[in-house]
Specification:
This protein has 169 residues and is an alpha+beta fold. Helices cover 28% and strands 25% of the residues. It has one domain (4-152). It has helices at residues 4-20, 31-42, 57-64, 84-87, 147-152; strands spanning 71-75, 93-102, 105-115, 119-132, 138-140. A hairpin with a 5-residue loop joins β4 and β5.
Length: 169
């Protein structure tokens, strides 16, 4: 079963790419999409969180992913409503999202790098960071610099019923 978010992305990302890029660059592996991803990878994490060193997003995430494969994609930052009539004149943000799994958790980092009409432009900004635990609970990470600590936090343990007889008072 495909999640609502997954289906939304599967439908909306191609529509944004069609509206944003010239006809010659409409494939999912287009030069424009690759350029947007490369731009996001080259952003210094210190520009997204002043507590972090002057290293690239790509280097930071490679380190934090502990060698896990990172999936990079361009999307609308989840901002389209799904109603073509309501969305037709809007200039949606353009995000580059990096997703990976590490320590039994799914991590998603989105960096806003421009808009659907202007393309990559302006100063990149952190749009969101989230971690989804194995039980499916997702929680936001407030700052990129908090990601290492959150990834090393012990997984939640579940309270189990006591086995065996209990003492009567």
């Amino acid at each position: 079963m495909v999640s609502k978010t997954g289906m939304r992305r599967a439908v909306l990302v191609p529509l944004i790419l069609l509206a944003t890029f010239p006809l010659s660059a409409q494939s999912p592996d287009s030069k424009a999409e690759k350029a947007a991803i490369e731009r996001a990878k080259a952003v210094l994490v210190s520009s997204l969180d002043d507590r972090l060193p002057k290293i690239t997003v790509e280097y930071f995430l490679d380190y934090e992913s502990e060698g896990a494969e990172i999936h990079w994609e361009v999307n609308d930052c989840g901002e389209q409503s799904g109603n073509p009539e309501a969305d037709k004149d809007r200039d949606f943000p353009m995000c580059v999202e990096a997703d990976f799994d590490v320590n039994h958790r799914a991590v998603s980092v989105s960096i806003a790098i421009g808009t659907s009409k202007k393309g990559p432009s302006g100063n990149p900004a952190l749009f969101s960071v989230s971690i989804t635990d194995p039980d499916g609970k997702s929680h936001p990470v407030p700052r990129l610099g908090d990601l290492p600590k959150e990834l090393r936090r012990p997984l939640p343990s579940h309270i189990r019923d006591m086995s065996g007889p209990t003492k009567a008072a």
